[in-house]
Design goal:
This protein has helices spanning 2-15, 18-35, 76-95, and strands spanning 38-40, 70-72. By secondary structure, the protein is mostly helical. Strands 1-2 form a two-stranded antiparallel sheet. Helix 1 (2-15) runs antiparallel to helix 2 (18-35). The longest helix has 20 residues, at 76-95. The protein is flat.
Length: 96
């Protein structure tokens, strides 16, 4: 994903079209958040357990956002709420 965003920005710099490249990057990122809202936890690497667990530190991952080894990506809730609000707005404007 980072490579795609970097390629679009590089294209914008090369062709001096940053006015088009930055919004394109934002649209690609928002689309990625809609398709993949979760990622593996950066602390436990998706295992759900503390990586340096011993007999004393046995237990679940220390990251409070970690649920079954996955965490929600930054901005994914906002992207889904925006789509839902747009859908509701279109539905309400058609009713009258």
């Amino acid at each position: 994903m980072i490579w795609v965003l970097g390629a679009v920005l590089a294209w914008g710099l090369a062709t001096r079209n940053l006015i088009l490249a930055v919004p394109a990057d934002l649209l690609i990122w928002a689309g990625w958040l809609l398709v993949n809202p979760f990622t593996s936890c950066g602390w436990c690497k998706g295992k759900g357990r503390h990586p340096f667990r011993t007999r004393r530190t046995y237990g679940k991952c220390w990251n409070p956002r970690c649920q079954r080894g996955t965490v929600q990506r930054f901005g994914s809730k906002t992207a889904h709420r925006a789509v839902r609000a747009l859908r509701d707005y279109i539905h309400n404007s058609r009713e009258g």
